[in-house]
Amino acid sequence: MARNNVRYLTPYQSARRLGGKGDVWLNANEFPLPVSFELSQKTFNRYPECQPTLVIKRYSDYAGLQPHQVLVSRGADEGIELVMNAFCEPGKDAILFCPPTYGMYSVSAETMGVEYRTVPAIKNWQLNLNAIEAQLNGVKVVYICRPNNPTGNLINQDDIRVLLEITVGKALLVVDEAYIEFCPEATLSGWLSNYPHLVILRTLSKAFALAGLRCGFTLANKPVIDLLMKVITPYPLAIPVADVASQALSAQGITLMRNHVAELNANRTWLLESLSQLRIVQHIFPSETNYILVRFTDSSGIFKTLWNQGIILRDQNKNPGLTGCLRISIGTRKECESLISALQALSMEGA
Predict the structure, then answer these.
(1) Could you say which of 194, 224, 250 is where a domain stops?
(2) Per-residue pLDDT tens for 294-323?
C-alpha cells in the first residue's frame, strides 16, 4: 500500500543510522563537547507558540534582519522540505542541486515525489553556471550548500550573484548556510533586500553545539516566509527547544558560540598541518568549516581500521567525484591527536 517512490527510496544515511562504537566521534560535524544550558520553563501542559517570539527576535537580531524575515523549524532539514512543500507541484516541478553536496536535498525531493536534477560541480567544486541555466526549465528551487558539505569550500560569490540573476522569475535560490559561523564574513543574509527569490537556511546544530536540539532557521523576505507559514506544522518547536534556543541566542550564548568557533578553527589548523605530513594522505581539500575532506591512498582500509579502533570518520567514497575521500569532523585537540597517532601508525605500516 505504500507509495512507489517511498518503497524504492534510499534513505539518508545519517551518522547515527550508520552507528559504530567508539570514543572519538568525528563523523557528524558536531561540536565535540556539551554546552551547559538549563531549562527555565518548568510547565508543559500548554502547546508552544508556533514561532516563539523570543527565539525569532534574538535570531533576527543575530542575523541582522527583521523578525518577519525569520522562520524557525525542526532543524534546517525541515526548512529544506518546507520550501519544496510550498513551491513544488509533485510530478510537475523539479529542484536542482550540484553534487557532491548534502544528501537531504535529493531524499526530500524523492519523498515528496518531486523530480530532482543535478549539475555536477566543476574544478574546485564550483558551479557550472552554463549547465545550470540549461537545466532550469521546470525547476522551481535551486539548492546551494555554502560552505559546501562535504567538500568544505565556499561557492564563488560572483557566481552566486550570476545564479541569482538567471533564476529571477523562474526559481527560488536556497543557500544552505549551516556552517556559516565558521566563516561569518561570507554570509549572503545582507543580499535578501535585493533578491526577493533568495532563501537562506541556518542551524544551531554546528557552531552553537546544539545538534541534539534540532533547531533551524529559514531566512527570507516576508512573502516567502508567509507562504512557508502556511505549510509548517502547528507546533514545530517544543517548549524545551525554544527555551534552550533563546538562551543560546542571548549575548552570552553568542559569545560562547564564537569561542567555540575560535577553538575549532585552531584545532583545524593544527589538524591540517599534521595531516599534510602523512604519506598515506594524497590530498587535503581547503575548508571553511568544522570538517576537512581528505583523500587517502587506501581510504576504505583506513576507515575500517580506525572504525575498529573506535575512531569514527565519514566515508565519502559513494559521493560523485569523492573516490578515496574521508570527511573528518574537527574534534577536541585530544581527539585530533588520537586520530593523528592512529594515522601515523598506519602510515608507518605502509612504509
Answers:
(1) 250
(2) 999 999 999 999 999 999 999 999 999 999
